[in-house]
Amino acid sequence: MVTLPAVGRLLAVTDLHGNLADFQAIVARFRAIVDAGGPRPHLLFCGDLVHGPAIAPQAWPEHLGDFYVDQTPRLLAEARWLQEAYPQQVHFLLGNHEHAHLGGPRLDKFHADEAAHLERQYAPGGFAPVRRWMAGWPLAAVAPGAGIAFTHAAPHAQIAGPRDLDDLALAGYESVPLADMASTGPLGALLWARTTPAERGLAFLRALHVGCKVAVFGHDIVREGHWIEHEPLLCVSSSFGCYDGDKVYLEWDLARPAGSAAEVARDGLRRLHPGARPVHRT
Ligand SMILES: [Mn+2]
């Protein structure tokens, strides 16, 4: 788990899936805050940075939103440079698509084997440093001053405390059916759960940090940009599966306590591409 400070701006995005333009849009916002001076901002990616569709524009389905070309290798390279330039300020959470390179189940959303498809784009041995980097990505981030916790998927994991996250082994899930992952223990839940009852979500938040009241996550596609099924769950879609005008990210003052998911959505969500026309977002 990564613990964010209680000062500065936080930018959080989810599920870029190889969309380089969306990556560069949030990085531009981050750099603008850096250049403005003041407290150091933080940029948090909530998993599934990798793996995108390879579909021609004329065959692109409506349900995937705006067309883009998967540029995962370049996105990963730029992500790594950014983290090296701002080592304490840029954070990547592990998603189920990164897990596919680290012992997670094989994914066949866009290709017969997502992980193999990406790794083949590197020279022999070239993916090894990327895999070592990803193996160190945390599973959750907590902003104690804001009372917000961030995960890739819904906060469905049953844990006693943050230390439980340190003990989770990534390997050994290769043959677990995808449909079973969310219910196969804390790691599966953290990477795969699409929802959880309010009480279970609150218990997860309390286990991470006593003052945590809101869970922000992605994994699922919300075509309108975000969805609050019920408190404390705020599901955010920044990129994959959305039209540019519907994509949102979270911008939040790390010193401001958040009372509810509704408050965070109302005051913290910003359009990733303010110039693009919303399609589903109201
Ligand atoms: Mn996911």
For the record, the CATH architecture stands as 4-Layer Sandwich
Number of helices: 10
Q: Gyration radius, to the nearest Å?
A: 17 Å
Number of strands: 11
Strand order of the largest sheet: 1-5-6-7-9-8
CATH class: Alpha Beta
Round the mean pLDDT to the nearest integer and report it.
97
CATH topology: Purple Acid Phosphatase, chain A, domain 2
Q: What coarse outline follows from CA principal-axis ratios?
A: globular
Q: What's the order of the H and E elements? A: EEHEHEHHHEEHHHHEEEEHE
Low-pLDDT residue spans = none
Q: Indicate how many domains the architecture comprises.
A: 1
Main beta sheet: 6 strands, mixed
Helix content: 25-40%
Distance, first to last CA: 34 Å
Ligands present: manganese (II) ion
Residues in β-strands, percent: 5-15%
Structural class: alpha/beta
Organism: Dactylosporangium maewongense
Protein name: Calcineurin-like phosphoesterase domain-containing protein
InterPro entries: Calcineurin-like_PHP, Metallo-depent_PP-like
Note the topology.
Elements: E1 2-3, E2 9-13, H1 20-35, E3 42-45, H2 72-85, E4 90-92, H3 96-99, H4 114-119, H5 128-135, E5 140-143, E6 148-151, H6 163-166, H7 178-181, H8 186-192, H9 198-208, E7 214-217, E8 226-227, E9 233-236, E10 248-253, H10 261-268, E11 269-271
Parallel strand pairs: 1-5, 2-3, 3-4, 6-7, 7-9
Antiparallel strand pairs: 2-10, 5-6, 8-9, 10-11
The structure holds manganese (II) ion.
Question: Could you characterize the architecture of this molecule?
Answer:
By secondary structure, the chain is of the alpha/beta class. The protein has a single domain, classed as Purple Acid Phosphatase, chain A, domain 2, CATH 3.60.21. Helix content is 29%, strand content 15%. The chain contains ten helices and eleven strands. The protein has a six-stranded mixed β-sheet, with helices on both faces. A five-stranded mixed β-sheet has the order 4-3-2-10-11. Strand 5 and strand 6 (148-151) form a beta hairpin. The longest helix is centred in the first third of the chain and has 16 residues, at 20-35. The protein is globular and about 45 Å long. The mean pLDDT is 97. Bound molecules: manganese (II) ion. Manganese (II) ion is lined by residues 48, 95-97, 152, 219.
